[in-house]
Model the fold of this input.
Amino acid sequence: MLTAARVGLLAAKEWKWIIGGGVILLALIIIGITGMSTEQQEQTTPTDFGSQQLSPAVLAYEAPVKAELKKYGLEDLTPVVLAIMQQESGGTLSRDVMQSSESIGLAPNTIQDPMYSIQVGVKHFANVYNQGKKMGLDVQSVVQSYNFGSGYLGFVESHGKVHSQEIAKQFSSYQMSLHPGMYTCGGDTSNFRYPYCYGDWSYVDKVFKYVSGGTEGSGAAAAATGSPLGQEKYEKMYNEVLKYQGYPYAWGGASPSTSFDCSGLTSWAFKSIGYDLPRTAQLQYNATKRVKKEDLKPGDLVFFKTAAYSQVTHVGIYVGNNKMYDSNNGGVGFSELNNYWSPKIVGYGRVS
Done:
């Protein structure tokens, strides 16, 4: 687990004892150990996440990770945990593949059995996930807590219940204030390097580079069913905005070169399929047809009031399964319409 205690040991501790065809051989051995047949893998439930850009070394552990997560009823989050492994291991096969030694009070890289590392790492992930779920927090808060520790969950809960890099920076600074002289971020912290700060406040962005929005049966194609835009247009728009997942929020941003704010993202999305939306969330609300919650379809817009001085201050694209795709303080990506967002909804709009 990449915490401040590791102080730069990751790069020095990478194991490079598997090369070439050895990766394929190890994958076959692992599948044999877990006893998960091809048929069993095909029967797993599709998820709202998918894996992308994972190294062969990490993909070799997909079956045991999924099997371990299934013990906690979290197998749908396999792509997220594999992305954590990719970030923790740097994409190479190390012994402590999830860098989970510290989560049980051991020195970094003490664990030398990859399967035990997965067992410990998944248990730690399940613990912070269940804590975060009880608090009504987003999965990004959970992922950051894998790095920071579970104390971050309480910090997010008291700071709006939604993870953002700014909240993570505040937590890092708070932890450093408790241990003066132990950590120092120095001058420019925009390019994070160990051992300067407590933990890695950019951890979520790094992990979600390896996570896509869906897998076969749950992504754009499935969500497009019944979209008022039509399947072809919806899929084109969905795949366009998915390119920018993980981009930072940028006030006034309306293109990939500047990144996006909320209405900048939606206007760019609909422009990609031939619609000319107004530039602000309020004007987009005024320009769209009102729909009822029970009639909400993928491709519709969800509007929010997040400040007292205006009727509509935020907008996202509904993608099905009580989720939207938007640009908020946590960056561009998927957001659950959960306890934080739902009370702020002022209406739903359909582009026509």
Remarks:
- Confidence is low (pLDDT under 50) at residues 1-47, 183-196, 214-225.
- The two ends are 48 Å apart (CA to CA).
